[in-house]
């Protein structure tokens, strides 16, 4: 029944795309409103499956950390589900398991929140929502749980700091986002985690998990009236702002290029190249999305893979991507190669990037990329869970409600000139950070 229902839903969505209708919100009938406490709600009603997906997100990701309290945002989000409303973490888990539901969390640079997947029958739905409400509205941040999680986190950080990929990621973030919270490690540092107190988490919750900044996404088997009740239930008791909430600061351009070489016994050189990229709402988003698919986001069909792997055998894989965030997230190229090939691999990457910036893609590359991206679009919306995630993103970043039906037309509109112009605005080879970790003595001598 599940596959038949999903197939029918996807078929209906694709029919709308094929018709290329200009009507607003035709692809998904997204209903959008505010709760009495000011939370935003996005809801899609679909009774094909007896399931309900619900999430509540807040601007409370690691981008709201400070250097002195790195890890505070992540710990606050993690401990929400580890004791709330008189329930211990084991009782929370047991009650959710008893009704066959799944209670999880979401955390990244911008967002933090809680999500629930449950059967829509009231016998299962109501107990699951009761637990979710306690987690959101009555977190306790127990001292003993915090102490345990601190020890676990510190052990994990110490272990991670022995690995070349961790060292590369840390150095890259710090260099691309100097003196900016996007450059901090989301999980914190050993010293900052060790210093986190219960009062820090309570304070962060009260100042960032605010009703007026909450985004509720509901997808599935519920009526509009039921969705309204659910949204009120999950947000009415949230904290209210005593002052203007924090905002993530602006990300500045880098003044110059930076080369960072970190010694490590690993025989493979871990290489990261990049700079600040774009915001989630940047008008160049689709030109860069399609262009990057050709440059390094399309796997074996990308230029970087062709030049670095297929023609020269310098790396097993190489990739590039833009990570658009509330502020400018990173543009990043990554690969691993033998230490004695690191210099050659970097030279090929940079030459390929400069050629792409200078000439753009060919018309054939562009046509192939569009065909693959448009053909793969159904996989982006082939489950309630994926559609629900899009609702959350649309609501959080205040994207147009027609975002999904505009997706394919926006890809079709991209041409070579748009890609060249967008990359020229956002990628500057003379201001890229290059990080190399590992590769042995021979590699270090070459650089």
Account of the 3D structure:
- The longest helix has 18 residues, at 2-19.
- It is built from 18 helices and 13 strands.
- The strands form three sheets. The chain has a six-stranded mixed sheet with strand order 1-2-8-3-7-6, with helices on both faces.
- Helix 10 packs across helix 13.
- The N and C termini lie far apart (59 Å).
- The chain is α+β, with helices and mostly antiparallel strands and 447 residues long.
**Derived structural class:** alpha+beta
The major β-sheet equals: 6 strands, mixed
If helices are DSSP runs of H or I spanning 4 or more residues, what is the number of helices?
18
The average pLDDT value, as a whole number, equals 93
Percent helix, as a range, is: 40-55%
What would CATH call the homologous superfamily of the largest domain?
Metalloenzyme, LuxS/M16 peptidase-like
Strand order of the largest sheet: 1-2-8-3-7-6
- The shape, in one word, is globular
Architecture per CATH nomenclature, i.e. the level-2 architecture of the largest domain:
2-Layer Sandwich
What is the gyration radius calculated from CA atoms?
23 Å
| Count of strand segments | 13
Question: Span from first to last CA?
Answer: 59 Å
Task: Give the amount of beta strand, in percent.
Answer: 15-25%
Q: So what's the CATH class of the largest domain? A: Alpha Beta
Q: What's the number of domains? A: 2
CATH topology of the largest domain: Cytochrome Bc1 Complex, Chain A, domain 1
User: Spans with pLDDT under 50 lasting ≥5 residues?
Assistant: 1-12, 14-25, 441-447
């Amino acid at each position: 029944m599940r596959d038949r229902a999903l197939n029918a839903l996807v078929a209906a969505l694709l029919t709308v795309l094929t018709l290329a209708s200009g009507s607003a919100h035709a692809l998904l009938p997204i209903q959008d409103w505010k709760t009495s406490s000011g939370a935003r709600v996005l809801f899609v009603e679909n009774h094909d499956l007896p399931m309900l997906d619900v999430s509540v997100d807040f601007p409370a990701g690691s981008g709201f950390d400070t250097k002195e309290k790195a890890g505070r945002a992540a710990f606050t989000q993690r401990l929400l589900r580890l004791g709330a409303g008189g329930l211990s973490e084991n009782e929370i888990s047991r009650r959710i398991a008893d009704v066959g539901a799944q209670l999880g969390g979401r955390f990244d640079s911008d967002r933090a929140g809680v999500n629930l997947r449950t059967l829509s029958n009231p016998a299962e739905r109501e107990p699951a929502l009761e637990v979710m409400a306690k987690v959101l509205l009555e977190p306790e941040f127990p001292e003993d749980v915090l102490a345990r999680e601190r020890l676990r986190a510190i052990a994990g950080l110490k272990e991670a700091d022995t690995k070349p990929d961790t060292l590369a990621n840390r150095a890259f973030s710090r260099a691309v986002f100097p003196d900016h919270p996007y450059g901090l490690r989301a999980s914190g540092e050993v010293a900052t985690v060790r210093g986190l107190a219960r009062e820090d988490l309570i304070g962060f919750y009260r100042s960032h998990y605010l009703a007026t900044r909450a985004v509720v996404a509901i997808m599935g088997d519920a009526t509009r009236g039921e969705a309204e009740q659910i949204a009120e239930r999950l947000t009415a008791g949230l904290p209210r702002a005593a002052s203007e909430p924090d905002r993530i600061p602006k990300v500045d351009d880098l003044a110059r290029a930076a080369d960072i070489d970190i010694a490590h016994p690993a025989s493979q050189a871990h290489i990261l190249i990049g700079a600040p990229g774009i915001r989630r709402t940047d008008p160049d988003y689709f030109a860069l999305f399609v262009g990057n698919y050709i440059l390094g986001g399309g796997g074996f069909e990308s230029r970087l893979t062709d030049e670095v792997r297929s023609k020269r055998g310098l790396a097993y894989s190489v990739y590039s991507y833009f990570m658009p965030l509330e502020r400018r997230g990173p543009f990043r190229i990554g690969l691993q190669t033998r230490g004695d090939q690191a210099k050659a691999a970097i030279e090929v990457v940079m030459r390929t990037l400069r050629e792409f910036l200078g000439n753009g893609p060919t018309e054939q590359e562009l046509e192939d990329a569009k065909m693959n991206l448009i053909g793969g679009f159904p996989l982006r919306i082939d489950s309630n869970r994926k559609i629900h995630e899009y609702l959350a993103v649309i609501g959080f970043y205040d994207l147009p409600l027609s975002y999904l039906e505009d997706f394919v037309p926006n890809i079709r509109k991209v041409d070579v000139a748009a890609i060249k112009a967008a990359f020229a605005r956002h990628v500057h080879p003379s201001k890229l950070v290059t990080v190399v970790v590992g590769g042995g003595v021979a590699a270090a001598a070459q650089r």
